[in-house]
Amino acid sequence: MKKWLVLLLLLTCLLVGCENVGSIESTDVSNEVETLDVESDVEDDVKAPVVNRIELLQKIRILPERLNVREDYSVDSDVLTKVHKGAVYDIYQTQLIDNKVWYKICYDKDKFGWIAGWYATELGKIFETDGNDFDDLVVKLNEIKSPYRLPDNKSKIETVLGVGEMFEVYDNVIDEEGVIWYKINRNHIMNWIKAENTEVFLSNKDYHIADDSLVVFEDSELESIIRDTFDIDYDFIRYRDVKDIESLVLNGNFTSLSGLEYFTSLRSFECNTESIKLFDLIKLNDLESLKLRNTVIEDFELIGHFSRLKRLDLIGSDIETIYPVRNLKRLSEISVDEKYMEGLNNLMLTQNFTTTVNIDVPEITIEFDSDVEVANYTVTDPDQETAVITSVTSFELSNSNLNDSVTITLNEGVRPLVVTSADFNGDFYAGWTNSSYDENIRQLVWGFGLMTDNYYGEIIDSPMVEKKTISADKSVWTFKIKDGIKFHNGEPLDVSDIKFTYEFYMDKNALSQTGGSSRISDYIESIDIDENQNTISFKLKNVNYTTDASVFYETWILPEDTITNGANSTNQTYQEYVKSNVSSPIGYGPYIFDEYKESQYVRLKVNPDYIGKTPAIEEIIVKVTRYENEIDQLFNGDIDLMGRTVDADLIRKAKTNNDLKINNYFRHGGGTMILHTDYEAFVLKEVRQAFAFAFNRPKVVDLFLNSYGISPQAPYSKNQWMMYDEDEMDLLGTETNGRFEESLTEYDILDANGNFDETANILKAQELLDVAVARTDGDYKYLTGDKTTGYLWKGELLDIKIVYTAFWTDTYHEVFNDDYISKLGFNVSLLGLDWPVMYGHWTGNTSEDRKYHAYVGGMGYSIKSNPRSTYSTDQIKSWGQPSDNGSRFSGGSSYTPDEWDQLLLDIENCHPVTGNDKYKRLWREYIKACNEEVPVLPVYSNNYHDIYNADLENFETHALWSWPRAVLDANWK
Predict the structure, then answer these.
(1) SS3 of 484, please?
(2) Beta strands 111-116 and 100-108, pairing class
(3) 519-546, pLDDT tens digit by residue?
(4) Does residue 209 contact residue 232 with C-beta atoms inside 8 Å?
(5) What is the pTM of this model?
């Protein structure tokens, strides 16, 4: 459309949508091969860029824990190596075999192989250049975006960028999660945006995007109407041309309304089109009149964004669902078709109100605060204080005496709890995908398996269990199930359902055919039931301290009769039937699954037959909400709960709002620095400790989290009951240290004001290095020097090499700046690597020589911790093979390798039910060793904030007690 713009490259790749499956590859392939060619499409009047200067690449991320890399695109081909979950690779070639896609990747330097594409996900496009020259690149937004100060999702700023806005690209990176980011110039401020849903163009430098925003219309007919309406005949339509227009009428159908977001002064907008999308208008904050005729309103919740709206006309429009919208306090006139009148019961209106309908409407109650005039209605209640209207062709309410004194209540009924959420996968039966947003729904629909957890993170018997017994050798677990439990559809729940459920998930082949996976069969040898006694016994293959969590916790029980009857009637396997109904779950928990609108919401209603305490909150709506909308909706009362935010600006605002409450707690995990304890100077405990003291972790917390976080002293969480003595359990999840944590070495020396004491920390680090220099035994002989001349390792200045993904570049360069390093007596080198390269060095899975000491990563903790899975010495492999012991730690100077392995084995073998005291004692020994030996140095733990409506009472959350748990004890004021 504009000759000064041209699409750089359209990289297209035919992909087939496949489910993420637990098993690594499918053997169902044919020998017929179809090559997918990558084509480029460049306009004739612009010279195509030189490929070796700017190249457009497609990235993929690995989904399973391990995935074979094969010599050729066939499961019969030889396996060259394995790649790991989360690794990101460029696509060099694509092959399609029997509708299954294969990708050719470079898994190591100059080494290529093929992976099964249905176990990877595409990430988008990233640009590679032979330098840092991005002068010819411009990015255009295809949806509303929020810019960030760093590409990290954490340092949001207030401004929202609109559809069609264009910015020069100054750099691009791919973060540790595989997300691609572009660095842009916004009003002479450098910010980052995600690359998703953007387009990249070439620009000539005769016109500078950063100097004057353009209004870009994707639809040529729409642009023509705008030009004719406002007599614009020059090449570019600029923001200043349209920003003062107050009224606009559009007729016709358009492929896109992109560009309208620049009409920021619009007061009245009328559009007769089928192509309207409300988010195209989201920046039109001052609209007072909105008339949308004959269109599809897919996301009615966005109407609530127009808080100044006085008149709303939706006659002839198709509205999918009218959500609760409570902030239209100025709305005085609304016109909709009769079929939507009942939906208006969800609107909270406090103004004079006029509406027109065609036939009978549901019951509407109108409470009069003063004399009013009411026309054309049928009154069934003679009380003049309240009129109940049940039949009407039209009605008008007008206040004859007082201004704004009429309140209209449209059958509010039960007050739902409205919770914001990211989009669901819709897999509300377990076994297919593991989205935490789907899991929230599962927890509400099922509540528990044979075992559950309590507020303190301890695994306990669930409400369905009357009695549990465990054999002396711990191999046989028997549960007696309570009578009278019912599924939501009325079907009784007994031991036959439980046996059916476990066998359902133990059938790996049938499950994998539907794209599902489960590890239950790894633990269970056999299952026996006694239906007369309502007991079920599990013979286990092996048992350790985490068995209850691995086997019996959150294995949701399935309704056998419903599934078997349904599968038989549709000629499906049980797994196929459940998968085909995966978005309509039938549980037995506190809430009944009522309604699911894809990418919109899930509605749940309280289960009156719940075996536990019936919740006071009768209805929950979990609503998919865009970030740019949810903040306004939270403050306006359209949503009641936004969980686990780390947005500092939002948190500060919420603290000043009397209509909101906040629960804050620390993440069950966080960012870490992994230290290779068997490499160069880091084999010495004192060197690792010195590095820990010299590392200004509070500065990382301040830069990354705006101080909403803490730095633990070892791999533990503030939410783990093992950290606290019995009389300290009220400290769980809080910032306050228990006695055990106080006994650990604190690696951040703080001054009287609570700030990092730079001088004291450096002196402590040098003191430790001096102690190490004084020793000459073993590897200590290689460390020499002092703080004045510099500490040396094998005769050269000690250089600690830290590796991170590009995501962390700015933060770590600010922490270890040249001035600070010059005071240490040793050097700290910082290097950013792509995730797969860094991860290869981290695990030792690379043919390159060792060269790095520390790795910036992250760590999450399970509800029951088994440190042997992370730190056992048998997981340390020789260099060139992947090691699951990331720090390559074998006990340091505190334990011999055999003693260390025995400690971990003793922890693992504690009795899963009666061994808590022994487990706590041994686990604390492990934590003390990690604190002293520093195989891993936790850098931060996020301080999460749940922000919610102040009318919600008795709502207590922490990292292990999320909102689906806490809501069961909550109530409205």
Answers:
(1) coil
(2) antiparallel
(3) 999 999 999 999 999 999 999 998 999 9
(4) no
(5) 0.61
